[in-house]
Amino acid sequence: MEGGDAASPPVAEEKGGEEEDDFGYRLFPDRNKKPESFLVRSLFTFHNRCQLMLRMTLDTNPYAQLLLEAMKQSGCTVFNDRHFSCENCDGCVSGGFDSATSQIVLCQNNIRHQSHMNRVVAHELIHAFDHCRAHVDWFKNVKHLACSEIRAANLSGDCTLMNEIARFKFGLKGHHQTCVRDRAIRSILAVRKVSKETAQKAVDEVFDACFNDLEPFGRIPHTKTDAKRAYKDFQNRDRYNANL
């Protein structure tokens, strides 16, 4: 999840003897509503703005472009009209990945700037990439969720120096790892009815392996320039493999 962020809300199921977990769907009320017609949606400024910013991200942002190409190579081509949905959400989130429908939800009422849209799309595409390439148990295995949240925070630009300064968090040595850990824990707590201790334990247990899993970037893209280099390297790697 991306805070004002991005959650991963799959389908709710009952847990015997425990409070029912809605897996974060309460944050995305439009998920359970009948879809409005294109004409009705087009009348709302939020929806139009969201669609325009999404198109700009998909066309120009190197984080998104690399992830889209990696998804396609993994057999999971992403289509704008099928796999992205601009919706109204709870005020504390900006987007989410709904594994039940393989859709990325973009919170049109909370995403107001292009740079924010870029980050949310990249964050959620990492969840989608993980969903495509691995058997992620989003429902029952909190360590699987923790791993994908660590990767999303690490690779999407969530924890860049500029974003952290904007949050009034100033980095010392190891601050990037601290940011990734904190944001992964926050995301788990937003979409799962677990204790903070349980979320921290899940993140701690998988942190090293998942923090060092840099696919498909091959590096931590701390800046857009890093992401452009990673995208170029990915394309070259693809051409090399095609010639083998």
Strand order of the largest sheet: 1-3-4-2
Shape: globular
CATH C-level name of the largest domain:
Alpha Beta
Provide the helix percentage.
40-55%
- What integer value in Å does the Rg equal? 17 Å
Low-confidence stretches: 9-18
EC number: 3.4.24.-
GO biological process, one term: mitochondrial protein processing
InterPro entries: Peptidase_M76_ATP23
Family: Belongs to the peptidase M76 family.
Describe the model.
This protein is an alpha/beta fold and 244 residues long. It has two domains: 114 residues, Zincin-like (2-Layer Sandwich), CATH 3.30.2010; 80 residues, no CATH class. The chain is built from ten helices and four strands. Strands 1-3-4-2 form a four-stranded mixed sheet. Helix 3 runs parallel beside helix 10. The longest helix has 20 residues.
What's the quick description here?
It contains ten helices and four strands.
How does the SSE layout of this entry go?
Blueprint: E1 5-7, H1 38-42, H2 45-60, H3 62-73, H4 80-83, E2 84-87, E3 93-98, E4 103-107, H5 114-133, H6 142-155, H7 161-166, H8 175-191, H9 196-211, H10 224-243
Parallel strand pairs: 1-3, 2-4
Antiparallel strand pairs: 3-4
Helix pairs in contact: 2-3, 2-5, 3-5, 3-10, 5-6, 6-8, 6-9, 8-9
Key attributes of the depicted protein:
244 residues, alpha/beta, Zincin-like, 2 domains, four-stranded mixed sheet, 4 strands
